[in-house]
Design goal:
Structural class: alpha/beta
Helix content: 25-40%
Number of helices: 11
Strand content: 15-25%
Shape: elongated
Radius of gyration: 23 Å
Length: 362
């Protein structure tokens, strides 16, 4: 007979800093406080499908236990963000049962959580979710693991690019991640001193952006500029480039598209360079904020399981961690930037062009 609860933990979707810190917190709290056995499931649901589990204990790393995971980027369990998981739902549930797990903690973004919600309902698992994503687009939580570190990474890149832009009188177009949500672009643009911020939720015009850049040059003597564009931004309302250069047909992304549009609109008067930060935004050592959040989320997830809760996600609300029904989360995600967002007004007050709220008729 089993004498200990067998808890599984997996990381799903794109990696981000802070995942290992969350794993560390779950293992430490579950083992020390509740005397549970904890098993890492490698490569998300693929591990369940293949019936693989790695025993995790507070002493499995070295004499200092799980502490090295606190500041380690990525995930020691591996992760996947491709494939048709739900096509193998019965085999995944069978794998969960074969591993004799009593409960599961899944760490993922809104896409992964939607899939895990379907699995836990059909499999009748005891399941708690922990949110992570550099996109910051999971509903009903003010913070998610990974966003703070990614934000700092982008701001650091903007700081560096500003100096080279100023040295050569150039306009730097910086493309950042975020899919359909503009949180990362908006917040990094404000914190990094951008002149224009283009995000999926706010329509914009190339004419408006160019007018703003010309104003900086002609009225204020600023001969360089920083434009932050989210990878999921829509095509401009007044796109002037040939059709093949629009986002849908450009294989080089929104940064290249915006550069071509601005270059065309300015009649090649602006010296423009493009920087696509790409997966560098996912890497690196987690920030203090992400380590703290991951630790709090890991502890809270274990406590919810101990209380008999299931089908919930831990969320940061009003300075504390709470449990929110997972169905509510998936029904309202992704959480996008609202046009009346306080930070939109903040950007405007700092003289940043953020779309059709200003300069459209210039």
């Amino acid at each position: 007979m089993k004498t200990q609860k067998r808890l599984g933990i997996l990381t799903s979707g794109g990696d981000c800093p802070g995942l290992n810190a969350a794993i560390r917190a779950v293992v430490s709290h579950a083992s020390i406080t509740y005397d549970w056995q904890v098993f890492g499931i490698p490569y998300a649901t693929k591990g369940l499908l293949e019936q693989k589990a790695i025993p995790l204990t507070v002493h499995c790393m070295d004499l200092r236990g799980m502490n090295p995971l606190l500041n380690m980027g990525g995930t020691i369990l591996g992760s996947i963000n491709k494939g048709d998981t739900l096509a193998h739902i019965d085999d995944i549930i069978a794998g969960y049962n074969a591993l004799e797990l009593d409960a599961l903690i899944g760490i993922g973004g809104d896409g992964s959580l939607t899939i895990l919600d379907v699995l836990q309902k059909k499999g009748n698992w005891q399941f708690i979710a922990i949110p992570k994503t550099i996109d910051n687009d999971v509903a009903f939580t003010e913070k998610v693991i990974g966003f703070d570190t990614a934000l700092n990474t982008v701001v650091d890149a903007l700081n560096r690019l500003t100096f080279t832009a100023a040295s050569h009188d150039r306009v730097m177009i910086v493309e950042v991640m975020g899919r359909s949500a503009g949180h990362l672009a908006l917040q990094s643009g404000i914190a990094g001193g951008a002149d224009c911020i283009l995000i999926p939720e706010i329509p914009y015009s190339i004419k408006g952006a160019c007018s703003h850049l010309r104003e900086l040059r002609d009225c204020w003597g600023r001969r360089f500029g920083i434009v932050v564009v989210a990878e999921g931004a829509e095509v401009a309302e007044d796109s002037c480039c040939p059709t093949e250069l629009t986002k849908e047909k450009s294989s080089q992304g929104m940064g290249k598209y915006i550069a071509d549009e601005v270059r065309n609109c300015s009649h090649n008067q602006l010296d423009i360079r493009v920087s696509v930060l790409g997966h560098i935004q996912r890497g690196g050592i987690p920030s203090a904020g992400d380590r703290l959040l991951a630790s709090a989320f890991g502890k809270a997830a274990v406590d919810l399981l101990a209380q008999g809760e299931t089908g919930k996600m831990v969320a940061w609300q009003n300075g504390q961690v709470v449990g929110v029904p997972l169905q509510t989360i998936t029904d309202n995600s992704p959480s996008l930037v609202k046009p009346d967002n306080f930070l939109i007004g903040t950007a405007q007050s700092l003289g940043i062009y953020v779309g059709n709220t200003q300069h459209i008729s210039a």
